[in-house]
Amino acid sequence: MDDFWEILRKIVEDMMRGELDPEKALNAKLFYYGYSVTTGPDGKPVIREFGNMPSLVDESSLGEDIFVEARDLGDAVEVLADVHGYTPEEISVSVNSDHKTLVVRAGPNVERLELPAKVGKLLEKSYRNGTLRLLFKKKRGLLF
Question: Where in the sequence is the domain holding 50, given as residue range(s)?
Answer without folding.
Answer: 2-60
